[in-house]
UniProtKB/TrEMBL annotation:
Residues 3-166, 178-351 form the EngA-type G domain. Keywords: GTP-binding, Nucleotide-binding, Repeat, Ribosome biogenesis. This is GTPase Der. One of its GO terms (biological process) is ribosome biogenesis. Residues 438-476 are annotated as: Disordered.
Length: 476
C-alpha cells in the first residue's frame, strides 16, 4: 500500500504550504466523505518516483487546553492511520506550549514521527532547531516549505525508513495480476459485491498463495486470469456479511485506489449520485486509475427511478465518461459477469505499450487532419510523441511553443488518440515538452548538483541522528 503521511502541528506553522508542495493536484480532496470535518485535506503526493498520500490534519488549535480538546478527534484518527507523522513547528516563532502538548501525545503513540522545523529560510538552521531538542522527539529536521527547501530530501529520507511493503512479498505468479479495488461510500454494497465477485463459479481463490488470512490482498483466478482484490472492507475477515469489521476509512479507500490497476466504484443507485461519490471519483481521476462504475441495488427499482438515475449520470458523471457504467445487483449477482469484461478491458488499456514510431505517426496524422493554431505569427509545431508511462498511459509530445497549445486542441488530441489506439476505461495524460529530443527531461534523473545536495543532506541527517543517539545514551 502507498504510505500515508500525516501533517500535524498548531495553526500557522506551514502545514498547508507543505501540503501544497507535496501534492500534485492543486485542488486537494477535501474530505466530506462519511461526514468528516471539511477542514481535513487529503492529497496524492509525489516526490521523485515515490508516491504517497498526504493528510493535512488541521483541527489542532493551540488555544484550547488539554490534549483531548487540543487535538480534535479527526486529527487523532489521522495520526492512528498514518504510517508517518510529520510534526511541524515554526522555526521563527520558537517553542510554544501547544507544541509541547502535541509532542507529549506523539511521544506516547507508537507512530514513526519526525519533528520538522519549518520557516528556517534566512535563519541559521542549527540555531533554529536548537529550541526543539527538548521536545524529546529526536532530531529536529530543518526545512523551508515556502521556499521548497529540503522538502524533497525530507520526504525521501522519511520514506526510505519504512519497512518493506506487503505487495513486494506477493508470490511471483501474482506480480502481474489485475489489481482491483472496490470502493464506495458506506453501505453501498461493497462487501456484497466483493463476495459475489469471489464467489462466482469460475473463480478459484488462493488462500495459500503466500498471503496470510489477515492480508488485504486476495489473489484468485477467473477463467485462468490472475487477479488480486484489494480488500479494504475486511470482507475475508468477517464471519458473515452482516458483521462489520471496521468502520469506513477514507485513508484505506485512498490507499486502495493508489494501489489498484482498476477501481470499481460502487454507487447506491437507490440513493442516486451523491457529492461524496463525486469526491471519490475525483480522487480516482487524480490518481490516474482506470475505472469501472457499478450502480448497485438495481434490483427491484421502479422504472421511473431508473430513468432518473440515468439522467443524473449524464449530468453529474460526464467528467468520468471514459469509464463504463454497469447497472448491477450485487445481492442477486446480475450484471457482475459483464462488469468483469469492463475490468479486463480497462486493465488492458491502462497497461498498453505503444512504440514511439506508432505514436509519432499517429501524431502526424492527427496534426495533418487539423493543424494547431498560429501564435505570434508562428505555427505551433508538434514533432514527436512517445509513451511516458502506463496506468495511466502517459503520452509525451515534443515540439515548439507547446505552452500555447489551446485546451480545445488538447481535447482534440486526446480524443483522437483514444479513438485510434482504442483506449477504454482509463484516463490518459498528455505531457507537452519543448525541444526535439524525446528522451530529454526524463523524471528521476538528478543533475550532479542535485545529487551532491541530496548526499549532503543525507550525511547531515545521519550526523544529527548519531548526535541525538549519543545524547540519549548519555542521559540514560
Ligand atoms: N518564511 C516562511 N514562511 C512560511 C514558510 N512556510 C509557510 N510560511 C508562511 O506561514 C504562514 C502560514 O502557513 P500555512 O501553510 O497557512 O500554515 P498552516 O499550518 O496550514 O496554518 P492553518 O491552516 O492555520 O493550520 C503563511 O503566511 C505562509 O506563507 C516558510 O518555509 N518560510
Ligand atoms: N437490494 C439490494 N441490496 C443490496 C445489494 N447489495 C447490497 N445490498 C444490501 O445493502 C446493505 C449494505 O451492503 P454491504 O455489502 O454491507 O455494504 P458495504 O458497502 O460493504 O458497507 P460498509 O461495510 O458499511 O462500507 C446490506 O444490507 C446488503 O444486503 C443489492 O444489489 N440489492
Amino acid at each position: 500500500m502507498v504510505p500515508v503521511i500525516a501533517l500535524v502541528g498548531r495553526p500557522n506553522v506551514g502545514k498547508s504550504t507543505l501540503f501544497n508542495r507535496l501534492t500534485r493536484s492543486r485542488d486537494a480532496l477535501v474530505a466530506d466523505l462519511s461526514g468528516l470535518t471539511r477542514d481535513r485535506k487529503y492529497g496524492e503526493g509525489k516526490v521523485g518516483g515515490a508516491r504517497f498520500i498526504v493528510i493535512d490534519t488541521g483541527g489542532i488549535s493551540g488555544d484550547e487546553e488539554g490534549i483531548d480538546s487540543l487535538m480534535a478527534k479527526q486529527s487523532l484518527m489521522a495520526i492512528e492511520e498514518a504510517d508517518i507523522v510529520l510534526f511541524l513547528v515554526d522555526g521563527r516563532a520558537g517553542l510554544n506550549p501547544a507544541d509541547e502538548m502535541i509532542a507529549d501525545h506523539l511521544r506516547r503513540s507508537e507512530k514513526s514521527c519526525y519533528l520538522v522545523v519549518n520557516k528556517t529560510d534566512g535563519l541559521d538552521p542549527d540555531v533554529a532547531i536548537s529550541d526543539f531538542f527538548g521536545l524529546g522527539l529526536g532530531q529536529p529536521l530543518p526545512i523551508a516549505a515556502s521556499q521548497n527547501r529540503s522538502v524533497t530530501l525530507l520526504i525521501e529520507e522519511v520514506l526510505s525508513e519504512l519497512p518493506e511493503q506487503e505487495a513486494d512479498v506477493l508470490p511471483e505468479e501474482f506480480k502481474f495480476s489485475t489489481r482491483i479495488a472496490v470502493v464506495g461510500r458506506p453501505n453501498v454494497g461493497k462487501s456484497t459485491l466483493v463476495n459475489r465477485m469471489l464467489g462466482e463459479d469460475r473463480v478459484v481463490v488462493f488462500d495459500q498463495a503466500g498471503t496470510t488470512r489477515d492480508s488485504i490482498y486476495i489473489p484468485y483466478e477467473r477463467d485462468g486470469e490472475p487477479y488480486i482484490l484489494i480488500d479494504t472492507a475486511g470482507v475475508r475477515r468477517r464471519k458473515n456479511i452482516t458483521e462489520a469489521v471496521e468502520k469506513f476509512s477514507i485513508i484505506k479507500t485512498l490507499q486502495a485506489i493508489e494501489d489498484a490497476n482498476v477501481v470499481v466504484c460502487v454507487i447506491d443507485a437507490r440513493q442516486g449520485v451523491t457529492d461524496q461519490d463525486l469526491h471519490m471519483l475525483g480522487f480516482v481521476l487524480d490518481a490516474g486509475r482506470s475505472l469501472v462504475i457499478a450502480l448497485n441495488k438495481w434490483d427491484g427499482m421502479l422504472e421511473e427511478q431508473k430513468l432518473k438515475v440515468k439522467e443524473q449520470i449524464q449530468r453529474r458523471l460526464e467528467f468520468v465518461d471514459f469509464a463504463r457504467f454497469h447497472f448491477i445487483s450485487a445481492l442477486h449477482g446480475s450484471g457482475v459477469g459483464e462488469m468483469y469484461r469492463s475490468v479486463d478491458e480497462a486493465y488492458v488499456s491502462a497497461m498498453a505499450k505503444w512504440p514511439t514510431n506508432r505514436l509519432t505517426r499517429l501524431l502526424e496524422d492527427v496534426v495533418a487532419e487539423h493543424q494547431p493554431p498560429m501564435v505570434n505569427g508562428r505555427r505551433i509545431k508538434m514533432r514527436y510523441a512517445h509513451q511516458g508511462g502506463s496506468n495511466p498511459p502517459i503520452i509525451v509530445v515534443h515540439g515548439n511553443q507547446l505552452d500555447n497549445l489551446p485546451a480545445s486542441y488538447k481535447r482534440y488530441l486526446q480524443n483522437k488518440f483514444r479513438q485510434v489506439l482504442g483506449i477504454k476505461g482509463t484516463p490518459v495524460r498528455f505531457e507537452f515538452r519543448v525541444g526535439d529530443n524525446p528522451f530529454e527531461g526524463r523524471p528521476n534523473q538528478l543533475t550532479p548538483r542535485q545529487l551532491a545536495k541530496k548526499q549532503r543532506f543525507k550525511l547531515h541527517v545521519q550526523d544529527l541522528k548519531k548526535e541525538s543517539k549519543r545524547k540519549s545514551r548519555k542521559k540514560k
